[in-house]
Batch of 2 targets.
Target 1
Amino acid sequence: MLSLQGYGPSILQGTLLTIELCLASLAISMVLGITTALAKLSRVRAAHFIANAYTTIIRGIPDLVLMLLLFYGGQVFINQVGPMLGYDDYIDINPFMAGVSTIGFIFGAYMAETFRGAILAVPGGQMEAGYAYGMTRFQVFIRILMPQMVRHAIPGFGNNWLVLMKTTALVSIIGLKDMVRMAGLAAGATRMPFTFYLVVALIYLILTSISILILNRLNKRYSVGILRGES
Amino acid sequence: MNFSIIADNIGIYFFGLKNTLILVSVSLSIGLVFAVPLAVLRTSKNILISGPINAYTYFFRGTPLLVQMFLIYYGMGQFEAIKASILWPFFREAYFCALFAFTLNTCAYTIEIIRGAIENTPHGEVEAAKAAGMSLYLRFTRIILPSAFRRALPTYGNEIIFMLHGSSLASVITIIDITGAARIINSRYYTPYEAFITAGAFYLTITFILVWLLKKLEYRWLAHLRRE
């Protein structure tokens, strides 16, 4: 019933690109998220202000609008700055980079909220004990804070990851050859749009299902030794 | 940056605003109306009842809204049966397809939100209702649902914002919502900053108003949890 008319490999290629995109933007969003969370909790007022403005604005604007702004706006920006640096050719933005940086930038804001909550969930006495042992701030962060905040961060992190994966579908709009775009091309050629978009939907479903399985295992792993109330 | 272009074309943004508000409010209302009974059925122990609803929410929560919209807008034309049926005038319209996709999507999320709230009803409340001799129907309408709605409100508020942002996808299938207006301005004048920053400002404003309204609503609905 499900004949892909020879377009299977190209869809698969698109799937690979989608996965690369997911992982690359996840990495960026994690770095941005941690940095922003620490800035939000810092005593430096400027850092605090910038971090709050970043998370509020990003979470108030649709992903698609941000993506179009960064993609088209970035194109204009680079071509304005390029000549100033003595680079005269027209510069095309690599859609992959545009997609990765936009999605990373957007989800950095969501990750920041998750990490902030997780950091606050670690009892302050733990850090104090670390300092009492003479650990530096960095050591306390790596040895005391990080291992304990992971457990509190996993549920929120998991949600963000699932939303991030689905958001990557938007890159097809800015011309990236991800699996949605590939399905669109195949659909146009074969006149079977339903079949191809259904295949893509099912691939997304498989990716999210695998993620949920892994996240559940991680959650279990990091909750070892935590006693729960019994009903 | 030159915002006078925007000032000259602000009409199209307000036209887009109208479409965005219609798409969001209609899909959210229809989605909510269907979600409540389906969420109740979803908590059923009979797998023949809860199974199909579970499959529906799993599919729509696990796939991107964009793909769902494409499946309906582009996909339906693949079937001669639909093309020949009386439904075709609807599925030919981008507006209807967007509305249909958004409704199915938000309904799936809402079902899970309400189900979670129902399942978190304190056991004692249900027991007390049973002890008072209430039927299943009375238990749901008087005890379980009112308290479940209260508990669901904060999460449902997130879903409203999520739908507002999701509605920007309508611009991909030729509908002129706020994002669509920005795309028209950008392609006409090649002014990406002005066009999309204005759209962002529109969305940000709506988001802030919604958050403020939801806070007020929570203040009223969750009055019993207020700490004085």
Note: DSSP finds eleven helices and no strands in chain B.
Target 2
Amino acid sequence: MLRLRELQLGFATAVFDDEQNGFDRHIRAAGLSGVRRLQVYRNNSLLSLTGALKAVYPVVCRLVGDEFFNYAAAQYIARHPSRSGDLHEFGEFFAAFLEAFAPATELVYLPDVARLEWAYHQIFHAARHSPLDLATLAQVPAQQQGELHFQLHPAARLLESAFPILRIWQVNQEDYTGDPTVDLTEGGIKLLALRHESLEIEFQVLEDGEFSLLCALAEGRAFATACEQALAAQPGFDLPACFSRHILQGAWVDFHL
Amino acid sequence: MTAKPVLSVLGPGLIPARAGIGLRAEHYDAVLQTRPAVGWLEVHSENYFGAGGKPLDYLERIRPHYPLSLHGVGLSVGSTDPLDHRHLAALKTLIRRFEPALVSEHLSWGSVGGRHFNDLLPLPYTEEALYHLVARVCQTQDVLGRQILIENPSSYLQYVESAMPEWEFLAELAQRSGCGVLLDVNNIYVSARNHGFDARAYLQAIPRPVVQEIHLAGFTVNRFDDGEILIDTHNRLVCPAVWTLYRQAVQRFGRIPTLIEWDTDLPELAVLVAEAERADAILEERHAQAA
């Protein structure tokens, strides 16, 4: 093996896994010890990756406090290291990690809050997309409409939680000034998170039928099947009005038969 | 004051021999609204690797008003892992879209075994590492279809294995790969203090023509029982000793585009602009001497 490769692997182990691997024999002793010098890199790396995680999950951080967050982040970084020089992808597994993170088990809503923040992060950086071609859609013959499949906007996500995660998210925004109390017993929520053309991101609370319709379409079900599922979830809801509202606000960007 | 429409004069391929500032998200609106009279802007390439959204949108709106430099922190040029072609492709897309005058990376590595540390980790200055770096820089320049600049990092340790000083390694890399040098004067100062070498000797060892950009920033001193170490934190004003070293650098290399970098505890835009004016004054002095 190349000596450079060996050195880099040893450095990584010393800094991130095992301080006692004897790597400091490669470091010139001058004033500060090799161990101390490696600590600088350990701190810098941990600080920058923790900072990146905090930037994606500010509400989770606010809910648990800096000290707890830093501890959780260090564990997360060890288990799910960054796999790219592009940090946009870092932090993907944080919600799942929190679900299994013993010190956080009492905060039952925390993983879902993290899911909401990850969705926000993805939407924030998602591609633009040209709007759906309404004129062409209108030409689809009525008897074929049931076979339509729709494509969700790249800057849209559907979320569901047994906890009031939107309320938790809202009262923990930096500029929030209202009543900060959250009633955890107020129940769950179904959400569409959507970035508009203006690049502003909006959360819309959905009813059961609406959520079911959007999820089915987003999963690639044909329009007729999605409608059946939606009406089963919420008999009698105004499906046509709901669907056209989402078409008009740009939740769907393309369709095919 | 508003910036002169330099682009129409220079075209996208040139950066003026003036001071510029690092553009950060917190200052997007202030830059658009006040158009500070700085010579150019630099951004971290990876911050614009997203598929869309506000960062790219802002950069698109700001770009017509300033020459631009793309500064990479995540390519991990010095790593012995295979070069990340997805990363390079994203960088190339960004270059095509924004036509930067300068594109830079670091004399460091940041990943091994597929694990990324989001840090600029030190290289041993050996023939083997030089050979590797030359190949990687050439590969990068081939894929991007252009020259890149390589920046000297701050370092907190030296390897027993190193067979030459950093300045020799960097100068050789530039000569063998054809890359330019982004000379970070603050990093030279930080490393010189951390390792006890003469910062001026560093400047003297870098060949004049390769230096195309200079960085200036603030550092932090961490004190321990057994000594102190300077950390390149980019969180405060440029220190007086670094201004002195900068003056010496400008004496040697001439009027080189100079960037004020500030990444954490970001102050108001006006503070960065004032630092840039200070650097501009030093560049002007040099100009007056030359005239």
Note: The longest strand of chain A covers residues 189-195.
